[in-house]
Amino acid sequence: MGIRVAVAGASGYAGGELLRLLAGHPEFDLVAATAHASAGRPVAAVHPQLAGLDLVFGATDPATLADADLVFLALPHGQSAALAAALPGPVKVVDLGADHRLRDADAWARYYGGDHAGAWTYGLPELPGQRAAVAAADRVASTGCYAVATTLALAPLIAAGAVFPADVVVVAASGTSGAGRAAKPHLLGSEVMGDLSPYKVGAHQHVPEIKQATGATSLSFTPVLAPMPRGILATVTAVPTGDADPREVLAAAYADEPFVHVLPEGAWPHTAATAGGNSCHLQATVDVDSGRVIVVSAIDNLGKGAAGQAVQNANLMFGLPETTGLPVFGVAP
After folding, report:
1. pLDDT digits (tens, 9 = 90+) for 69-80
2. By 3-state DSSP, what share of the chain in percent is helix, strand and coil, each rounded to 5?
3. What is the mean pLDDT of residues 215-228?
4. How far is residue 240 CA from its own chain's centroid?
5. Quick one: which of 93, 69, 90 has its CA closest to 9?
6. Full set of structural domains in the chain with CATH
7. According to the model, what pLDDT value does residue 11 have?
8. Which residues contact 201 (CB under 8 A, 6 or more apart)?
9. SS3 call for 101
10. Which of 68, 84, 145, 253 is catalytic?
11. What is the dihedral of CA 128, 145, 255, 139, to 10 degrees?
């Protein structure tokens, strides 16, 4: 018997991706998956890509999850904290939601509202010191999808003093799975196909998380809904402090990272190249007109942006190689 794991909120897109990764994981035994409206239904009836996985959704309550060694919470923002608090102390938890990411209670109130549940260890191992912190933690707050793509592009540049932490601008396009599985008119195929549309302009909830993770002090963020099921392409611009080569800074920071790839000169990230994998592709240059540093980042929002990132954290929490059970390469075409 391996490490017993359960997934709460497994009927959504991130939950389904978690089930797919966990079903093939050599050390984790998937023992429970819960849902609200889908409780009592076979998993494959909701996630047809998991045909052959003999599992039925249970109710999302502590009793269903308490026998696991590790619980993943793939619940809507604001719903994780109460459930996590009701789980037995020995159960380790990785939260894919936002409930425990922010250290600043005022930032939580401003962007999410309601009571601040307190901060857990932040689950982005590529940040300095975070790999050891995640490995030592019993409760880990996994990252937001836009936050991963932006933080990996920006954090090493600020840490190295290569760009100013103020006046950072991010425009990032995401596939529709990032908006969740609930039926919404603006996510209908007829509405999305052939269209790009910004949303939550000037007030996206990942802004305080990105600032906290990168050290940025001023951030303008514009998210864009793109007509594709999965993937994020983020363009990050900042003002340089000198003449450091931003690509060299990133290459040095990620030289030993299994999931972060700084592409060769002249090659630019594509979302399709990261689909199905847990990797982030990066490229950087300096704009010849404005002089601003430009970094482009691509991830799979359901992989490195959600389920893959969560499994990477869980591997560290149980002393496993962090690449265990995770695809490094994308699926193309």
Report:
1. 999 999 998 999
2. 30, 25, 45
3. 95
4. 27
5. 93
6. 3-143+304-317 (3.40.50.720), 146-301 (3.30.360.10)
7. 94
8. 222, 223
9. coil
10. 145
11. 40
